[in-house]
Design a protein that fits this description.
The protein is α/β, with parallel strands linked by helices and about 425 residues long. It folds into two domains: about 180 residues, Flavodoxin domain (Rossmann fold, 3-Layer(aba) Sandwich), CATH 3.40.50; about 220 residues, 3-Layer(aba) Sandwich (Rossmann fold), CATH 3.40.50. Helix 4 links the parallel strand 3 and strand 4. It starts with a strand and ends with a strand. The protein is built from twelve helices and 16 strands.
């Protein structure tokens, strides 16, 4: 007769995904094994005491010499091992707590490790582990590698002679538990990637303009792409230091006759315009910015964090407004005597072709210089060939100057 040992370890008795999964598996197992029996142990309702010196030392002391505490601990360990040895299939259910297993599960596992009875001797047992985790930890996600349950348990089971444990994982369980909250975020938030490395693409063109400069960053998000003079730059080994030594160094591979600046341009005024400005001093807005970084790009995440830290030391000014209607009023606020520069990168990509034309007509009617880094053809007159879909065209007043990576990693100046 087949026998199943079913272990639950979630602290939650209601709404637990790991409990629900293990119950489903146990039911299917019973259906597949008519007449099968089950031993059930709930480590939350009946927790195993954590390993202490009495429990650890009990196995090294003859039975007649054990203290009462050692005798009690040895008896409990023997009972738990008996349950394992009696089973054909051991079903282990685990949530994820602080990137590892519940301590109650670890306490149980510590009691079943015995050199005399289990180490190297459980190879004939089927181990099935069902796990649940509220977030995403798959390869490519920001927290890939943070779930330490499986690597730890696989190694631990190997010492018991188990080399082929089956893991059944479920994740993003919190999304199902908070649909209203998730929907509210989706309605309130927009794609507002604020990649500071795009400054490395615009800077050579910006530095060619008459100083001093007054910047208007359209689609500014949190304003990280108008802090040109805060960052340092490395153009294929050519370095230019910014004003903030703790700000990130933006590395950009260059080719062609790029007019690399000999000094940082003098920027005397800057302002951002965005439909939904993000505040670098808001932890919630910073978390949203971090979510917009592609999961497998750790270098971008680190660069973003450093840029946010720099911006927080002297937050940029960003006003709420529509690029189609509010730009003239913003430009009018610029100081007299400065070269007013309207700049943006990968912003018009998100508006319709008709709105792009309307915006272009508005900018041309202002006394400004227009610097853009957008996908080919997004800015009228910049329909240049590109090597791939991640390329942008750097243009001044609608005239193409270079092609670049959309995230600022390389710049190819047109001859």
């Amino acid at each position: 007769m087949s026998h199943l040992l079913h272990i639950d370890s979630s602290l939650r008795t209601e709404g637990s995904r790991s409990r629900r999964l293990s119950a489903h598996f146990a039911a299917r197992w019973l259906a597949a094994h008519p007449g099968g029996t089950v031993t059930y142990r709930d480590l939350a309702a009946d927790p195993i005491p954590h390993l202490d010196h009495a429990a650890f030392s009990a196995g090294f002391v003859p039975a007649a010499d054990r203290t009462p505490e050692q005798a009690t601990a040895f008896a409990l360990g023997s009972q738990l091992i008996d349950e394992v040895l009696a089973a054909d299939t051991i079903l282990l259910a685990m949530p994820l707590y602080n990137f590892g297993p519940p301590s109650t599960f670890k306490a149980w596992f510590d009691r079943i490790v015995s050199h005399e009875r289990t180490v190297g001797q459980l190879g004939d047992k089927e181990f099935v582990v069902v796990t649940a985790r509220g977030g995403g930890y798959q390869p490519g996600s920001p927290r890939h590698g943070w779930d330490h349950r499986e690597p730890w348990l696989r190694h631990a089971l190997t010492t018991l002679g188990v080399s082929d444990a089956t893991f059944i994982d479920t994740e993003l369980t919190l999304a199902r538990e908070s649909p209203a909250e998730l929907a509210a975020v989706m309605r309130a938030r927009r794609t507002q990637t604020n990649e500071p490395a795009r400054c490395a693409v615009l800077l050579p063109a910006l530095a060619q303009l008459p100083e001093p400069l007054a910047l208007v960053d359209v689609g500014a998000s949190a304003g990280l792409t108008m802090l040109f003079d805060r960052y340092s730059y490395d153009y294929s080994g050519y370095r230019l230091d910014g004003a903030d030594p703790d700000a990130p160094t933006l590395r950009c591979r260059v080719s062609g006759p790029v007019p690399l600046p000999s000094k940082m341009p003098a920027i005397v005024w800057r302002i951002g315009l965005d439909l939904n400005p993000l505040d670098v001093t808001s932890d919630d807005d910073v978390r949203w910015l971090t979510c917009l970084v592609w999961p497998d790009e750790e270098d971008r995440a680190q660069r973003l964090a450093a840029a946010i830290a720099s911006a927080r030391r002297a937050p940029p000014t960003i006003i709420k407004g529509d690029l189609l209607t509010d730009l003239p009023a913003v430009v009018a606020r610029a100081p007299a005597g400065a070269t007013v520069v309207v700049c943006h990168g990968t912003v018009l990509y998100y508006v319709t072709p008709a709105e792009r034309e309307q915006f272009a007509d508005t900018v041309r009617g202002l006394d400004v210089t227009w610097l853009t880094s957008e996908a080919p053809g997004v800015v009228p007159g910049t329909d240049r060939p590109s090597r791939d879909e991640q390329m942008t065209v750097l243009a001044r007043d609608g005239r193409a100057l270079a092609v670049a990576d959309s995230h600022g990693t390389h710049l190819d100046w047109l001859g």
